[in-house]
Amino acid sequence: MTRLAHLLGSAQAAAQWTNTRVHQLVVRALLDPNTALDLVEQGIAEDDPVILAEPGQVWTRRTEADPQLPAVLYLTHRLGPEHLVVEDGGTTGTGVIPLALLYAYELDYWKRS
Q1: Is the pLDDT confidence value at 106 over 70?
Q2: Residue 64: is it exposed, middle or buried by C-beta count within 10 angstroms (0-12/13-18/19+)?
Q3: CA within 20 to 30 Å of 60's CA: 20, 72, 93, 96, which one?
Q4: Is 19 in contact with 44 (CB distance < 8 Å)?
């Protein structure tokens, strides 16, 4: 089972999410379907938050990342294409972060509704 399938609970769920994400890129970014599929597959393989980040996910700080960053972030919702609202479970509570900050983290858990 792939990492995405493990996070989503099944290979079927991973395939369905992948197809949906590809479709979003085709419609919103006007990408060719093959190009969109390549980007999504590469993003999945590299744990790329630009492709993967969605509300309901828990991201854990990478060991090589700045230890001053919160250890865990829970994504509650998107605030535009480049910002996320997160809860860190610590003293800072809820806040807005740039999407790029998630490169210091890895996707650890994905609660799907």
Answers
A1: yes
A2: exposed
A3: 20
A4: no
